[in-house]
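User: I'm writing a tutorial on reading structure tokens. Could you give me a worked example: one chain, its sequence, then its tokens, then a sentence or two explaining what the tokens reveal?
Assistant: Sure. Here is the example chain.
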Amino acid sequence: MAKDPITAVIVGGGHRAVTYADYSLRHPEDLKIVGIADPDAERREMCRLKYGFGEDRCYESAEALAAVPRFADAVINGTMDHQHYATAVPLLEKGYDMLLEKPFAVSEDEMRRLLAVIEKNGNRVMICHVLRYSPFYIAVKKRILSGELGDIINVQMAEHVSYHHLSTSYIRGKWANSDKSKTTMLLAKSCHDIDVMAWLMQPVKPVSVSSVGSIFQFKPENAPANAGTRCTVDCPLVDTCRYSAKKIYLEHPDRWTCYAWADLEHKPDQTMEDRVKSFLNGNPYNRCIYKCDNNVVDHQAVMVNFSSGATGTFNLVGGSAKSTRTLKVVGTLGELTGVFEDNVLVESLIASDTPEGYVEAPVDLSGADAEGHGGGDDNLTADFIRYLRTGEQSVSCTAIENSVAGHLTVFKADESMRLGGALVKIDL
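And here are its predicted structure tokens:
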């Protein structure tokens, strides 16, 4: 017998929430969007028309939504990082289950208060750690669980953030200044990766962490001689600087449209002339990359100690030529090595009776998709629906109680970095 679709309300109708909500357009039998809460009237109307609900289900805030009787099973919360706690709590208190974007809190104190609310109300909450749902990382997890790698000794991970992504999000953009965004770069960008590390090691727990990092490249003293303050306004290097807004955005207008021209979001027929004019009229993405108000690191190294005696290392490096995530898991019987973006994963097992001393074979990752976090976006949404219907947790399930270890490791790593790399205990 067919089940009714899970009904959900969008809270914060930005790019990420809409990505998950769009699952309803492809699978209406499983998910139905029935409302939105967002302070932007045009965004509310855009979602209303897209998903087909009435004006009476449009709200200006999470508080306004919480003020009316609950009319859906769940909330898809895609608000900005520092808004997650404040928007989640009144709706959890109302009885909604929730798909909550990462990071689900911006401090340890906020995290523990959110967990207390969920425990009190019995909500089912999943965190949008989409990497767990990609075929690449699922294959790694299953091989660890199978025991074929033996006991895990070390997990080595790295995330290389491309120069244009770094520029857009962490130098000129929303997450550049922790005083405004309330997040560090490790929390905003790489809590995915630290979560994956903690998940791969479960049930072994992280017990301590050490971390160092800095702003290495993008600071005023590194600006080229004669550099201006706004690329297309007063900089003579606009045609030669690799980081000029002209080169990164105007010459590649489809790469970062929803960020660089957020002020034109509601103009569907925007032209290049509109975009040029936006850059002349104070658009923050036209600022010299060396003269912004960024205060988050552009590189950071993290070392984690686990209760079994195993270790994990993670390197976040901003400004690379291309974005890549690399992984190596070493066990007592063998290892896995891979590159996420290339959908390449190789298993090498110890074989002392062979000339090479090992046997090596590629892992079949057919079904991996380069779009949507390697196929993770749709897989996560589908798992959320299954979780609400059955209460059962898949091997990837990002139920909030399974996501605490990664978040707490990030909070403690940033504490360590502020202390100059001191070893900090993790209390789970």
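What the tokens reveal: The first strand starts at residue 6 and ends at 11. The chain is about 35% helix and 20% strand.
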